[in-house]
Predict the structure.
Amino acid sequence: MEDRSIKKYLEELSSPSPTPGGGSIGNILLSFSASLAAMVCGLTKGLEVYIDDLKDLKDRFLNLSYEDEKSFDSVMDAYRLPKNSDEEKNIRKQKIEEALKGAASVPLESLKLSKEIIPFLNILIEKGNKNAVSDVGVSILNLKSGALSCYLNVIINLKSIKDNNFVDSVKNEADEIKDYIVNWCDNAFEKIINEILGE
């Protein structure tokens, strides 16, 4: 992802421009989840070995955030293509379909990748520094919110795609991953609360 300060990113996010938008934010949340997990690994003796893997995940989510913005821009460019003749209309229709598939594929990739944070969080729930247990909880919340954000961006792009086989395949995969992550996060968050309360 291109270098941007948080302040500049938020200024762009709050502008009337559609990018960056929800898809970009979904990946930012997932990068927060990986980053917090890396932090707690750094605070826990014996878990430092996982820091580089988590930082790699963080960087991959940041890159996907940028890719999400570019894919949406491609959709907008396709809709702006001329449609004065039948040939132009056909080309435009094909380009829109291709761009929408790309725009659905990026958040699906993010969803798939989000599952890779879970093994690290499982280790942290069991062995992480108890003084940082709330940070593990916030990582879990960012994982859930980020994954759901990406899921929304998958299905909204699928809505306009004409290729039913593509739509069904991507929707089924996204549904399965989304359900798995939400269920895992809900259960894991309850464990964090119980840990903090000593129950």
About this structure: Residues 20-197 form a domain with the Four Helix Bundle (Hemerythrin (Met), subunit A) fold (CATH 1.20.120.680).
